[in-house]
User: Fold this.
Amino acid sequence: MKSLRYINKYFIKYKWRFLFGILFTVVSNYFGVQMPAFFSSAIDQFQEQVKSNEPTDYLWLALELGAIYMGFSLLKGFFLFLMRQTIIVMSRYVEFDLKKEIYGQYQALDQSFYKQNATGDLMNRISEDVGLVRMYAGPGIMYTINLVVGFILIVGKMITISPSLTVFVLLPLPVMSILIYKVSSTMNKMSLEVQKEQSFLSTLAQESFAGIRIIKAYQREEQITEKVSASAERYKNQSMRLVLVNAFFSPTIIFLIGLSSMIAIYYGGLLIIEDKITPGEKKMTIGGIVAFIMYVTNLTWPFASLGWISSIIQRAAASQQRINEFLQRKPQIEDLSNAPCPLENGLQFDNVSFAYPGSDTDVLHNLSFEIQKGQTLAFIGATGSGKSTICSLLARHFDPTSGQISIDSKSLPNYSLQNYRHKIGLVPQDVFLFSDTIANNLKFGVEQKELSSEELEAACKKAHVLHNIQDFQDGFQTILGERGVNLSGGQKQRISIARALLRKPELLILDDCLSAVDTETEEIILDELQKDAATRATIIVSHRISSIRNATKIIVLDKGCIVETGTHEELLSQKGAYYDMYQFQLEQEKKGETEA
Ligand SMILES: Nc1ncnc2c1ncn2[C@@H]1O[C@H](COP(=O)(O)OP(=O)(O)OP(=O)(O)O)[C@@H](O)[C@H]1O
Ligand SMILES: [Mg+2]
Assistant:
């Protein structure tokens, strides 16, 4: 329950809606209570008229009473409408704000957070958990107020008619609340299971759509179908059980209302027949009994909602607890400084070691090197040797576990993170493009969205992808991804390079981003990049010697350690690991040529 205090700040923010909501609830209930009272006096009035044998225009009397009754209904309905319009609307605003807050936190948190959390959980927090909290802020609160106000007004009215009858009639209500609470918590448990199975089923279906090519190629259709059927079967059985419990719900309530009404008629009837006047009570009339039956019915739903409300509040509290824990997380990489970052002065690694969060094993060991403006620094090494990890450190997705990365002898955390990242163009190894137009993907990294088409074309020309784009019917407006064109691996890599170039970075990081293009295209792109290499520092990671042979300095990595450094020629003359790699790749190339 404590966790829900967090959203009190939103109730304060929307206090007018909230206060008016309460007011409308009171007014609507007031008219609701007047209706049975009026009905009862109308019946008694009719009876008096009939008894008195006076000539009366009954039709006119009926119309008059009916019109007043309708007036009350309309007023009650109108304020009910206003009550929903204020409180439920407020809850939607709260939901919107909370989602924004959570999403902001998602954007603030860094890679180490994303490594520890599954995408499904992340999605759940922003959709399901917030949804449950909204149920508390909207319907939960609304029905609670409604219950309290309704109870006070109705019971107050009942007591003015007959205190003793009131006690008898109210007896079944607590039983009903407890019963409903039990039924709804059973239902909640069951629906949680149903939900779990449902999300399992949809993940399964989603995966099988995404992997349909593999499924078909490996002829696994039957196995997958069986797996899906089994899950669907479980889902069906659980849903059936839920339906069964659900089916008990309404009959139980109706039975208990019936019981109360019966008591009202029986005991009220006795009071009339015996013509007893209990001390302090008015004489019971038929109209009074009718009013009681109406009041009991009016009380039922608020009471029935008691069990439901308490389960809503419990679930919302659990959800808000999760949300609070998440909102309290601090990103490990924080932007604490405003100092602009003089990247043009070069960047230095001093004894940098690094282990991924949650792991004790270092994947980089005591790396020291530096990179200056105008230079190209290349990394080569077997798979898993730590090349991409170095790129992640350079982009400050993580900070080193020990040692430091510094500019002008001051480590990176002393400079503004925003400013530092602003100067970097990263082309990651696993290319990611958004399901949007090519133009928007290219402009993604720049502030001014209105880049001229010449600039776009120039960058694409450098990345040697312009001719591909122009071949598409819609050119730069071609939509990528699920709803549009699927690009080849090499095309994606080159668009991703152009995207980085458009940022005019001071540090360009190319993480194995030419792996999917042929050596000729690679040559062209490298030549283009070389042309303005003097304006920035370039880091290039590759498995292929052809990509890096012209680099200012080449670093050979093995299991996170630097094993050799030097220019291409220097490394060849050392006849070490680099030389072996070179010989091997040369042989492969020759083999390839003779085979061709
Ligand atoms: N997110 C991660 N969490 C934990 N360990 C990781 C993570 N990413 C990489 N590693 C580990 O760090 C080591 C270096 O990985 P890295 O991706 O830097 O290699 P790489 O040289 O880029 O390899 P490749 O040439 O295949 O791209 C590997 O042992 C890998 O298992
Ligand atoms: Mg890598």
Notes: Residues 115, 356, 359, 363, 381, 383-389, 429, 512 surround adenosine-5'-triphosphate (ligand 1) (CB under 6 Å). The beta strands are 347-354, 364-371, 376-381, 402-407, 410-411, 424-427, 507-511, 537-542, 553-558, 561-566. The chain has a mean pLDDT of 88. The chain has three domains: 2-327, 343-423+507-595, 435-504.
